[in-house]
Structures are given as structure tokens and as C-alpha cells.
Amino acid sequence: MPILNNFHYGYVIVFCCCLIMGVNVGLVMSCAAIFYKPVSSELGISVGDFGLYMTFIYLFSTLMLTKAGKLMDKYSARWLLTVSSGVLGTVLLSMSSFNAVWQFYVAGAIIGLTLAFLLYLSYPTMVNRWFNSNTGFFIGLCSAASGIGGVVFNPLGGYLIANFGWRNTYLIFGGIVLVIVTPLLALLLRNYPADKGQKAFGEKQSETMKSGADYSAAIKSPIFYALIAFAFFMISVSTINLFLPTYVVSVGYSVEQSALVASAIMLGVTIGKVALGWVNDKNPNLGIFASVGFGIGGFVLLLVGQSQIALMTAGGFLFGWAYAGVTVETALLVRAVFGGKDYAKIFSNISIALAAGGALMAGGWGYLADFVDFKTILTIGIILLALSGTLGIYALRKSKEFNF
């Protein structure tokens, strides 16, 4: 009984956020690529035409994020996330019956609306509400769950597609979201610690509300726009990941060796998310240096590693830390700079840069590669990471002006 009395419900919230990221986001985003070939082949369209539905996901997430933060504050986050999960599962079920590519575009638009809550706001907002210490670690842990979900569900999805077809696989994926995740979110999620008669983990008894900058003051500050640029540059760098296997092959390595580098990147992302969260709890400046510095080091190794696959693999692993910094560093920088008072509203606006940047640069690097070589693209990546680091340090140093 004493153990139950001492148990903090914030751990259940973290479990729910890991479910959202590991299952919902893992199935939709981390496993998207395994459907490209079988769906496009059956529908008689190009892979590029089918893959365009991902652009609709990013686009409508961007549009929804302009309002999502305010909705999370005004209405029940518990039910917004539960309903979003239910809608997502229903869309996955419906995708099993599609026969035209425009239907996938409509589905992508609806998925984008749900991911504004599930992907971009769920764990940063909920962890910020429920934890006043170890915030970075738990944000990193929840974010890392999406990668773990990809590791688990990609081979499962591949097996299901090979043996039962892509239509049945969409049915199974939708069923997992509707039967397992959505009911658990409805049952377990709570909006604030007060709903369970508790204070935020690590919050002093004398504290009644998280401190921080007002939303109206934050969006008028140059720091706010510096963090938007930080987020945009970081997501731009992360999308270079889509082209790194092609780069590895182009410098003389085999497809199998390029897959090894790709696996090293994902390992770096997963470890980096948890580690960066922990580092940020100790020192936010050090978190920026780790994310940006390791990323720059990774690009350097990828540039000079044309004769040794070990260097290329190490470069991929270090680049994964910069990739991890997209979600972890952005979320924690917003908290470190602006505090927790109006976190959801502030972060949702800055997250627009993540969604818009992903939509723009996922294809932008491909078009750029038609005119310049991959070495130039990697060099541009180094420059963008250096700019990101500079903006992050600037934001932290200027945050003192808010006096909270």
C-alpha cells in the first residue's frame, strides 16, 4: 500500500506517450516506405505519385499546428489524443480498400491533422505538465519510442505484406491502433497531475503552477523566431538521411554496406534521443553541443570515409544524434527558454517549422542533387548544423530577459 501511495502517475503518462509514439507514429511514419512498392504496383502508378501522400501528411500537420497548441490548452488533451488515435486507426482501416491514388491523398490529409497532436504535441506537452524534473530524459525516451516502433513493425509489416498482402496489412495496423492503443489512452491518460491528486514530479509543495513566459510575450520576442529557424535548419539536416544510402553506394560501397550505414543512423537516433534528454537535464548548452557537434562530426566522417566502411558507419551513427536533436532539442529548448506556463501554444507554433521543413526539404534535397554532388549537400548540412548551434546558444543566453 505505501508503494502505491508513493507511485507517481506521471510514469503512466510516459507509458501512454510511448504507446502513441511507438505504435501510432511507428506504424504510420516509420513503416510508410514498406507500402510504396506493393501499393503503387497494384494501382498502376509510380512510387513517386503514391509517396506524394506523405507531403499531404506534412502539409496538413503544418496547418493544424497553427491551432493545435491552443486546443490542447483549452480542451482535454486526454480526449484530443484519444480521438486523434481513433481517427488515425479508422483511416488505416479504410486505406485497405482504396483503389485510386487520390484516396491516399485524402487519407494523408486526415492523418496529418491527427499527427499534429499525436506526433508533434503529445509527449512534449504531457511530459512538461507531469514532470518538473528529469523532463529531458522522459521527452527523449518517448521520442525514441517511434524508432523502436519502426524496428519492431517494419519487419512485421514486411512479413504481413509478403504473406497476406498490403490491404490486409493496413487492416491489421488499423486494428492495432483501434483495439489496443486508443482504448488504453482513453482509460489511462489524464490531463494534469491535479486530476490524480498529485503535483508534477519534482515539483515543490509550495509551487502551484509552472512558471514561464506568457504566450503573447514569447511570440513577440526575437528568440521565438530564432527557435523557429533552429527547428527548420535541424529538420532540413535530418531529411538528408533519405539520400545517404544513395550517397554510400555512389562512392563505391555495396547496397548491403549502405544498409549497414542506414542501420547505424537509426541506432544513433534511438540512443541519441534518450542520451540527449539526459544531457539536457544536466546542461541545455551541453545538449546543443552534443547534438550539433556529433552531427557535424558525422558528416565529416561521411565525407572522408570513402575508403573505410568503418568510418562511414561511425559517421552515420554520429549523424543520428543530430537527427535525434530535431525533436528532442527543439522540445527542450522551448521549455528551457520559455518555461512551462504556455508551453503547448508556444511549442505548437515552433513545430510548424518542423512540419513545413520536412515537407519542403524531403524533396528539396533531391532536386538539389540534380545540380550538385552529394559532397556539396553534406557540406551544406555542416553549415546548417553550425547555424542551428549558434541560434540555440543565442536563445538560451537571451532567455534571461523573461525573468521567470
The SSE string, one letter per element, is HHHHHHHHHHHHHHHHH
Number of domains: 2
Can you name the CATH architecture of the largest domain? Up-down Bundle
Mean pLDDT rating: 87
Structural class, by secondary structure, is: mainly alpha
Largest sheet: none
Strand content: under 5%
Q: Report how far apart the termini are.
A: 38 Å
Q: Level of helix content?
A: over 70%
**Approximate shape:** globular
Note poorly predicted spans.
Answer: 205-209
Rg, Cα atoms, Å: 21 Å
The CATH top-level class label of the largest domain: Mainly Alpha
Number of helical stretches of at least 4 residues: 17
Total beta-strand segments: 0
Q: CATH topology of the largest domain, what is it called?
A: Growth Hormone, Chain: A
Summarize the structure in words.
This protein is mainly alpha-helical. The chain folds into 2 domains: 2-196, MFS general substrate transporter like domains (Growth Hormone, Chain: A); 215-402, MFS general substrate transporter like domains (Growth Hormone, Chain: A, Up-down Bundle), CATH 1.20.1250. Helix content is 79%, strand content 0%. It has helices at residues 2-6, 10-30, 36-43, 47-51, 53-74, 77-95, 101-130, 135-164, 166-188, 215-218, 222-238, 244-250, 255-282, 284-304, 309-338, 343-368, 374-398. α2 runs antiparallel to α7 (101-130) and α5 (53-74) runs parallel beside α7. The protein is globular and about 55 Å long. The two termini are 38 Å apart. Mean pLDDT is 87; it is low at 205-209.
